[in-house]
Amino acid sequence: MDTALASNKKAGLGIESKSLKKDYVGRNGQVISAVGPLDYAIREGEFFSIVGPSGCGKSTFLRLVAGLIRPTEGQIFLDGREIIEPSDQVGIVFQRPVLLPWETVLNNVTLPLRIAKRLDAEGVDRARSLLDMVGLSHFANNYPSELSGGMQQRVSIARALVKNPSVVLMDEPFGALDEFTRESMNEELLRIWMLQKSTILFITHSISEAVFMSDRVGVMTSGPGRLLDIVTVDLPRPRSHEERTSDDYYNYVRVVRSVLDNASQAGREK
Asked: What is the DSSP string of the chain?
C-alpha cells in the first residue's frame, strides 16, 4: 500500500440502524412512508450491497446514513455514535461523477479538503496518491471533459476517499456506464477497497454486480422499504473477472434473484 495512504488509515466504522423510519408529507398533506422500520447492522470493513425494486427507499437509507436527512423515527449509528449531521468519516460517490468542469482533476479530488479549509501539502500528497491508486496520476492536470465516463467516476471515487473516510456510500455509481466499463470499474473498486478496507455501503439495481462485489447483499421490499433478507456471499477474495463464470457465482445470483422476487411479491401484497 502507498505510504501516504497507509499512514492515514483509520479503522472502519460499523453502521447500525434501529427501528429506522423516514416519512415525507405529500402536496395534499398525505404522509408517505419511504423506508422502515429498518434494522441494519453492517460490519466495519464490510462490503455491503443493497438491492430492491425501484422506489423501495435504497437511496433514502443511504442519505440517512450520510446524515443528509434525519429519520422520522428510530436511530442510526456510526461506530456507536448517533448520526445527526454529515460526518468527515463518510465519503459519498453518486451515480454521476458531478465534477467541476472548470477545475483540473487534481483540484476536483482536493475539493472536499478545500471546502473544509484543511488543504495542505499532506492533503495534496494524499490526493496525488489516490489518483495514482485509481490509475489517473498522469491526468492530474487534465479537465473532466478530457476524460471518459469511467475515468471521471474514478476521479469521484478518489475525491470520496481524500478525507480518509471510514465509510464510503455509493449510490448506483456505475449505473450510467456501459457493461464492459461497468465490469472493469467493479474490479477497480474491489482493488481499491482491498487496499483501503473502508466500510462500503453500495446501492445497485444489478443483482450480478451486487453478488460480485459484496460480502453480504441486503434485499429490500418495495416502499416503504423494509429489509426482507440478507444473503451472505461466500466467494473467495480477491475476485477477478473469471469469478463471474463460476457455478458458485451463478448460484448466489439465483438466490438473490429469488429473494428479490419475494420482495416484489411482498410489495404487491401490501
From this structure: --HHHHTT--PPPPEEEEEEEEEEE-TTS-EEEEEEEEEEEE-TT-EEEEE-STTSSHHHHHHHHHTSS--SEEEEEETTEE--S--TTEEEE-SS----TTS-HHHHHHHHHHHTT---HHHHHHHHHHHHHTT-GGGTTS-GGGS-HHHHHHHHHHHHHTT--SEEEEESTTTTS-HHHHHHHHHHHHHHHHHH--EEEEE-S-HHHHHHH-SEEEEEPSSSB-EEEEEE----SS--GGGGGSHHHHHHHHHHHHHHHHHHHHHHT-
Residue-wise pLDDT for 135-171, tens only, equals: 899 999 999 999 998 899 989 999 998 988 889 999 9
Domains in the chain, please, with CATH? 15-89+166-268 (3.40.50.300), 99-164 (no CATH)
Over the stretch 198-208, which tens digit does the pLDDT of each residue have? 899 999 989 99
37 preceded by a cis bond (ω within 30 of 0): yes
Residue 180 grid cell: 464492459
For residue 151, CA distances in Å to 88, 105, 177, 269 come to 25, 10, 11, 43
pTM of the model: 0.85
Residue 56 confidence class, pLDDT cut points 50, 70, 90: confident
Place of cell 404522509: 31
At position 153, the amino acid (one-letter code) is Q
